[in-house]
Structures are given as C-alpha cells and as structure tokens.
Amino acid sequence: MSKVLITGAAGFLGSHLAFQLIQKDNQVIGIDNLSTGKMNNVMRLIDTGRFQFIPYDITSHQVLTLDALRGIEEIYHLASPASPRFYQSLPFGTIAVNTIGTNFMLELAKTNNAKFVYTSTSEAYGDPQVHPQHEDYRGNVNTWGPRACYDESKRLGEVYCYEYFHRFQVPVKVARIFNTYSAGLRNDDGRVISNFVTQALQQTDITVFGDGSQTRSFCYVDDTIQALQLMMENDAANGEIINIGNPIDYTVLEVAKLVKELTRSASPITFHSLPEDDPKVRRPVIEKAKKLLGWEPKVSLEDGLNRTIAVYRAENNDKKGLLL
C-alpha cells in the first residue's frame, strides 16, 4: 500500500486512475482546482474512506506546505485542461499548471523521495511531418497559434522533468498520451468521441471538421490507466519518454460512420472548416512501451465505443426521465 498523490484528480483520467489505485488498497490524495474537473467524478471515491480530496491550485507555492502531502510516495501529475475547447479558453492557467505546477510537483517529489509520472501529450509532436510518431521525433509545433498554450507548455513540462531527473535523480517518467476515451469524458468538451456519440444519440448533426481524412488513434481509458500504473511501478521507465496510445489509426470520417452505425442513429454527417493547426495525422509507435512495460492496448475501438455508447445512452435516458 502506498500514499499516492494525483493532480487533476477530478478530471477524466485522474478520477479513473484514483478509482483503480483505491481498488489496490492505496491511500490516494487528489488535488484539483475544478477549472475543468467535476466534483461528481470524485464523490464515489470519497465514500471509500481511502481517498482525500483537496480543492487547490497547484500553481500556488503554498501547495508545498500542505500537511496532507507529507510522506507522499508516488505522484501522478495529470493536472491540465486537455480539450482544445477548454485549454484555448484557459490559456494562462494551462501554461501555469504545466510549467509552474510541474515544477512544484517535482519539488514535492524531490523532498519526499517520491516516484513521479508526468502526463505529457501527443500534442508534443504538433502537426507531425513524421508518421507514425516515435519518441525521438522532435515534432512540428507552432509556437504562435491557438494550440500553443497547451502544446508548448507540455513540452516545457517535459524539460522540467529532464532537469529534475538529471540534476536531482528524481525517478521521473514521462507519458506522451494519445487520444483516450470512454464514457467518463465530458460530453461538452469538444473531443471527437464525446462529440460524435452525444450527437448521434441526440439525433443531431455529427460534425466532422475538414473532410474527415485526418487520422487519429483511440485508446480506451482502461488501457491508458494500466500503462500509467506500469510506468510508475517499473524502474526501467525512469528518465524515459514513452508513447501511450493505440497504434491503430482511423480517419475521423471512419469513426463518425462507425459511431453512427453502432448507435443506429439517423444523424446526418456534416462537414465544417478545419480548426487552425489541427494535426493531419496522429499515431504512436509503442515499441518502447512494449519493451519496457510489457504493455499494449487490449480494447478494440468497436468494443470501447460500444461500452461508451451504453453509458451515454443510459445517462441520456435518465435525463429524459427527469424532464417528464
């Protein structure tokens, strides 16, 4: 049993991770400023008796003085808006949590001799000119655009991790996470899966940006969470950047059609202007994850979508019942 800190614990990945760690009898402390996270995500965790929630902004230096964080053994640093809709509306907060917040969490790890997993992003590759993307690829990121607040701050967060690993021997591991989904995604966050499933179930237009030929890989949340835990547990991952994602990619239009088919929706598929700097391709090389962690995703896209659709449909039916 370990004393574990999760930043961004009220978010999509953070709440899923906390639940699984609690199931393994860990004592989990979750921090979140609730800028995009939801209290509903952590209420079931609080009831377990092995979870403490602290509503706090980790970009405040005072986070290092919180008594609850003394003796922390593991830190999963997940805090950051991840949806373009949210990080573009909160650019300065996004920059701060991925830089200042990362610095403070690494300092906390250094003080407590704690292991540290930093969740970076496939956005570190920008609009890649190399496909698929391996960890040695340095990316093609625009520093002067609407996505830069997220892309570049995550990249700078990786630099903080590098310095703490090499200067202070903090056991840091960096996960570059590719698109992850499940029913826990907010249905208003603007990401592909949540958008398509919500629109299909509500019988509204399924909105595809561009012509839908851009590719994405989609990893079900259970697979991503397993990878993060394996990174924390495995010393071979110390000082490494590791892609975490599904190595099978689909065009966005293929996904729209599959969601429409699985939901048996009559929604029309409509096409809209592609957002600025939207990546044309995105697919990870995961050979390092296979070698160092013995990990690869197990849940197929169709299986994961069926699970996601079932929960979204039940939630929609509950809402309709409340309105009657």
Automatic annotation (TrEMBL):
Q: What is its main location?
A: Golgi
Q: Which GO terms describe its molecular function?
A: GDP-mannose 4,6-dehydratase activity
Q: Where is the NAD(P)-binding domain?
A: 5-307
Membrane-protein topology: Single-pass type II membrane protein
Concerning Pfam families, the annotation shows: GDP_Man_Dehyd (PF16363)
Q: What protein am I looking at?
A: UDP-glucuronate decarboxylase
Q: Which cofactor does it need?
A: NAD(+)
Give compartment(s). Golgi apparatus, Golgi stack membrane
Taxonomy of origin reads:
Bacteria, Bacillati, Bacillota, Bacilli, Bacillales
Q: Note the InterPro entries from the entry.
A: NAD(P)-bd_dom (IPR016040), NAD(P)-bd_dom_sf (IPR036291), UXS-like (IPR044516)
Q: In which pathway does it act?
A: Nucleotide-sugar biosynthesis; UDP-alpha-D-xylose biosynthesis; UDP-alpha-D-xylose from UDP-alpha-D-glucuronate: step 1/1
- Give the organism, scientific name: Cohnella suwonensis
Which EC class does it fall in? lyase
**What family does the database annotate?**
Belongs to the NAD(P)-dependent epimerase/dehydratase family. UDP-glucuronic acid decarboxylase subfamily.
Keywords tagged on the record: Decarboxylase, Golgi apparatus, Lyase, Membrane, NAD, Signal-anchor, Transmembrane, Transmembrane helix
Q: What is its EC number?
A: 4.1.1.35
